[in-house]
């Protein structure tokens, strides 16, 4: 059975803007070995699974610096301090796509990458999403919105057109909810 590691020291390592990095000096409870492990500190995230009145899912296309390419994904982003997942999802949906809708509930909460991060990702279902206004994201964020059927979205995942892991995880979380 795996043993727990005890944090012996927790040191600030680097400020990287939207996240920081800490270095944990950890000791293995079973055999006493130790090592340094780096933890990315970042706020919780939110993903908006937004469905139009026709049952189509709202997608956003944007350039992603990590892969140096464009991606199709769900509206998502960092939660602001004190912001609820529902409010953050509604805000991200409107900022990235210009759509607004009715928050219908939580689909689930996952750890995006527990090997390196302690934050959580909240998945929020938004129904009756309709175009409302201008897209107004961050200064370095340019987005374009599109809707597709849920069936087409799943096909895009299988075809490799949607590669963002959190968008794929969202499908698993809303599979059991009533789409229309």
Shape: elongated
Structural class: alpha+beta
Q: What is the helix content?
A: 10-25%
Strand content: over 45%
CATH superfamily of the largest domain: Nucleoside Triphosphate Pyrophosphohydrolase
* Structure summary, number of beta strands: 10
Distance between the terminal alpha carbons, to the nearest Å?
45 Å
**SS summary, helix count:** 3
What can be said about the biggest beta sheet?
4 strands, mixed
Q: Are there runs of 5+ residues with pLDDT below 50, and where?
A: none
CATH hierarchy class name of the largest domain:
Alpha Beta
CATH topology of the largest domain: Nucleoside Triphosphate Pyrophosphohydrolase
Describe the protein's architecture and organization.
- The protein is an alpha+beta fold and 180 residues long.
- It folds into two domains: 5-42; 45-174, Nucleoside Triphosphate Pyrophosphohydrolase.
- The protein has helices at residues 85-97, 150-159, 165-174, and strands spanning 5-15, 19-28, 34-42, 45-50, 56-64, 69-73, 76-78, 99-110, 121-131, 143-149.
- A hairpin with a 4-residue loop joins strand 5 and strand 6.
- The N and C termini lie far apart (45 Å).
- The mean pLDDT is 92.
Map the helices and strands:
Elements: E1 5-15, E2 19-28, E3 34-42, E4 45-50, E5 56-64, E6 69-73, E7 76-78, H1 85-97, E8 99-110, E9 121-131, E10 143-149, H2 150-159, H3 165-174
Parallel strand pairs: 4-9
Antiparallel strand pairs: 1-2, 2-3, 4-7, 5-6, 5-10, 8-9
